[in-house]
TrEMBL record:
Protein name according to UniProt: L-lactate dehydrogenase (cytochrome)
Family: In the N-terminal section; belongs to the cytochrome b5 family. In the C-terminal section; belongs to the FMN-dependent alpha-hydroxy acid dehydrogenase family.
Renumbered residue ranges of the record's region Disordered: 190-209
Keywords: Flavoprotein, FMN, Heme, Iron, Metal-binding, Mitochondrion, Oxidoreductase
Principal location class: mitochondrion
Native organism: Lentithecium fluviatile CBS 122367
Catalytic reaction equation(s): (S)-lactate + 2 Fe(III)-[cytochrome c] = 2 Fe(II)-[cytochrome c] + pyruvate + 2 H(+)
Entry GO terms, CC: mitochondrial intermembrane space
Localization of this protein: Mitochondrion intermembrane space
Top EC class, one word: oxidoreductase
Assigned EC number: 1.1.2.3
Shown residues within the full chain: 102 to 483 of 504
FMN hydroxy acid dehydrogenase domain mapped to chain residues: 1-379
């Protein structure tokens, strides 16, 4: 398939679905229980109306912004998503190449299929990466990973994921567990000698033979993280800014904001619907924060992800107060559709749609976007 003939993110997913293995598809596509949160994530954007202004000069259009003071060309970043090499040998390195081409930020999953050093190899001046951490039961393993991040200048922050202390029940992933190799899937960073050196793997129980990809990646992830214990521990082991991912209520957004400036950003996310099914889409959490604790927006940057498939989705999130939006599956399916060029096509489509949306709304720069550009009454009642 010619990548140029693919016109939108749904078509990218269709093409990738035909090209990647059944097991990879099940892992990427799957979500918790009945996939309700995954469905809501995208549907919620369709209920928000845009309010275009006319008679506005829209020759110029600038999508650039910054995350934690690092300049980027797009308010769209690639969310941390595990095992990109299941889709294509270019893997997370390929995503990095595409992000470089479009000036987009990339968050690297702790469960990436390539090592962080491999992924940032070839990164250009000014390219921005974050490292997503799943704290391990054996803290020494996570401490070794954090030490390694301190040595990679391209990694600008640590993104601690908190919405999945245990994996959600993902039935598609479970169903495909016996397809192909059923060896436990391991994160590349965990395979690496510099991490294993400190581990007590020999004593730790090994995972059962047959598990879905998700279950097997979660093996060893700590479920005992708390505000009181984990943030001070993290501060001891990294001087990088902290981003908390997986905030789903205004209460937790507020608590996170009390930890500024150590916590510099929060990501409103339900993990692409892969953790607790029927947890709210980020848009609902944005509305809650606006209503109950709008000061959060002054203390931390607020990023969102889940269900972003159109430039209009990006713009609506920004109007509601998000600094930027992450794409998870879109990038993985882009990789599946055409390796690094497929991811580049995803970013090209989203950038062009975002620009068209800005022009038709009558806005030149993303910092001009606000609540006056949308009508969210249909979801404010929900
Ligand atoms: C994820 N996500 C995720 N999040 C995280 O913090 N660490 C991880 O390792 C992963 N792994 C992962 C794998 C796959 C296959 C998917 C689809 C997602 C969640 C991800 O960062 C993001 O929150 C969602 O993907 C956003 O939703 P969309 O864009 O996929 O709808």
């Amino acid at each position: 398939v010619e990548l140029d003939s693919i016109l939108n993110i749904d078509e990218i997913e269709e093409v990738a679905t035909k090209q990647i293995s059944r097991k990879a598809w099940a892992y990427y596509y799957s979500a918790g229980d009945d996939l309700m949160s995954k469905k809501f994530n995208n549907e919620v954007y369709r209920k928000i109306l845009l309010r275009p202004r006319i008679f506005v000069d829209c020759v110029n259009c600038d999508t650039s912004t910054s995350f934690l003071s690092h300049k980027v060309k797009l308010p769209i970043y690639v969310s941390p998503a595990a095992m990109a090499r299941l889709a294509h040998p270019d893997g997370e390195w390929g995503i990095a190449q595409a992000c470089e081409q479009y000036g987009a930020m990339q968050l690297i999953s702790q469960n990436a299929s390539m090592t962080p050093e491999q992924i940032v190899a070839g990164a250009k001046e000014g390219q921005v990466f974050g490292w997503q951490l799943y704290v391990q039961t054996e803290r020494a393993k996570s401490e070794a990973i954090l030490a390694r991040m301190n040595k990679l200048p391209q990694i600008k922050f640590i993104c601690l994921t908190l919405d999945a202390p245990v994996p959600g029940k993902r039935e598609d992933d479970e169903r495909s567990k016996n397809i192909g190799s059923n060896l436990p899937v391991r994160a590349a960073v965990q395979e690496d000698a510099s991490v294993n050196k400190t581990s007590t793997d020999a004593k730790a129980p090994s995972p059962p033979k047959s598990m879905g990809v998700g279950q097997s990646l979660f093996w060893g992830t700590a479920a005992d993280l708390t505000w009181q214990r984990t943030l001070p521990w993290l501060a001891q082991h990294t001087s990088l800014p902290i981003v908390l991912k997986g905030i789903q209520t205004h209460e937790d957004a507020y608590l996170a904001s009390l930890h500024a400036p150590q916590v510099k950003a929060i990501i409103l996310s339900n993990h692409g619907g892969r953790a607790l099914d029927t947890a709210p889409p980020a848009v609902h959490t944005l509305l809650e924060i606006r209503k109950y604790c709008p000061e959060v927006f002054d203390c931390v940057e607020v990023w969102v992800d889940g269900g972003i498939k159109r430039g209009t989705d990006v713009i609506k999130a920004l109007c509601l107060g998000a600094r930027g939006v992450g794409v998870g599956r879109a990038a993985l399916f882009g990789l599946g559709a055409g390796g690094k060029e497929g991811v580049a096509r995803v970013l090209e489509i989203l950038k062009a749609e975002t620009e068209t949306c800005m022009r038709l709304l009558g806005v030149e720069r993303v910092d001009q976007l606000g609540m006056h550009h949308i009508n969210a009454r249909a979801i404010e009642r929900d």
